[in-house]
Structure formats: structure tokens, C-alpha cells
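Standup notes
- DV: blocked on the single-chain target, sequence here:
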Amino acid sequence: MEKVVPIPEAAKAAGMTTLVFEDDFDSLETIGFDEETGKKWYTVSYGNRLTRDRVVQKESYIHMEPDTYGLVTYSKARDEGFTATCGCYLECRMRAPMPNGEYGGIPAFWAMGLDDFMGRPWTHVGELDVVELFVTKNKNGEDQKYFAGTLHDHYRSGELLENGCLKTERATNTVNACGYLDQFPFTDDDWHTYGALWEQGRITWYMDGVKMHSAEYSADALPEYYYRDDPTPLPRAKEIWPDIKKREWEGAHSVMDTDEEVVFLTCRKTYSMDVDWVRVWRK
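- DV (later): unblocked, structure below
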């Protein structure tokens, strides 16, 4: 019997009902540890390689130990693989135990611009973090779990050098949507589904089918961003980051809408993670 994959409600509402990428991790055969052609995942990125001993197939999911940049959907060696583009819904079901008192992270499901991944010259490149998970302390010194669904716009300007790279005059990392501390039910030893609806000029984040927040962006302004369905905008960037004067803010550029994004499953630094499946839907 052919497996029926349910379409997420957010994807269905946006008309994104075609499944263009899927891995249920029923085996490790979809991972190109040696950069073989035709695989769904590869293990080399940003000068790091994920070794076989850091990924274990268990029942119908994979277990990843803390490592470097983890699994990616693109082979830099072959310049081939899957990239996500504007007009899609990205979703991952994962579990990431994060013990209190152990600070750091970051189990993550995210995407980064292809030009940056390949080491090509660029002036703007986008980054979409569907989810990053942390443990940190709140203002009362209590442990709290941290959900970050974030849009970054990386910006660089300067003359083109003989080696093909851009001379950096300034480099910014503009955070366009922030994370939230324990403002939703979360048990880190249970499975959770994380999704991001990527439409032109807007990213909307979901957890277990519930809208968490959204960011609307343009070429010349920071976005308005909201928590769940509350119509009141959250505090602006200067209120969230008191040290904002130390950053150079360029606004929220619409580079995301023309970018190709390499998709990552990353388990860096502190915590392990289990991944049941990854899916990407389009119209």
C-alpha cells in the first residue's frame, strides 16, 4: 500500500500541496557520507565533515550526536543537490533532550544561501532558521528552554578582489525575528514538529501545527513580528537587544525571495537530537 503523507494545514492553506523533498530516515541509505551522487543528504559543509559514527539509525528515525554542521541537502564537491526556494513549506519532526543546567545548544533545522555554502562571492545572502533550541537563564536566574525561529540577512559590500572574493567593508548579521522563552508548552523528551511557511516577503513559524510568530520584510525596513495570533507587535529590535548600537543594521532585505537555500540538520555544541522526518512542500 502506498504511504499517504498528510499535508500540513499551513501548507494546504497556502496551496503548497506538492511534496518536493522527503526523507523518513528508515535507513542511512539516503546519506552520502562519501559524497556519492544522487543522495538526499551530504556530510561536508563549511570545512567540516560529519562522520558515520555520529549518526545512528534507530527504528524509523536517526539519532545525531553533537558534531559540526551535520547533514546538508547539497554536495559542495559535486555542486548538486536539493535547495529550497521562496514559495515552500519546510517541516521537520524531531526530538532534542536539553537538560536543565546544561547551557548551550543547538539542535537546529535551518537553511542557508547556496552562494555562501559554495564559497562564491556574494553581497547579500539569506538564512532561514526554522528552529534552533537552547537552554538559557531568564532574568530571575531560572532555567528556560528557548525556541528561536529566525530570519537572517547577511550583507557584505566591497570591491571584487583578484581571488574572486569581495573585500569586506562591513558585514552584518541582521536578526529579523527573535526567539521566545517558554511561552508555549514544551517537553524536550517528546517529539515536536517544526515548520516554516516561506512566502514572498513573509516567513511564518509553526510548532506542532501552532503558529508561533511571523516576520514580514521588505528591502528597506525591519519587519513587524508577532507572537502566535496576538495582533500586537512585539518590542522592536532595540528593546530586545540593548547592545544594538554595536551592530550595523541594514534593514530586512528581500534577498530571501530570490535565494536558493541549502537545508541543514545541525546538532552542534551540546545536545544530541533525533530526527523522524524532513519534508518540503510547494505549489
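- Follow-up: The longest helix spans residues 9-13.
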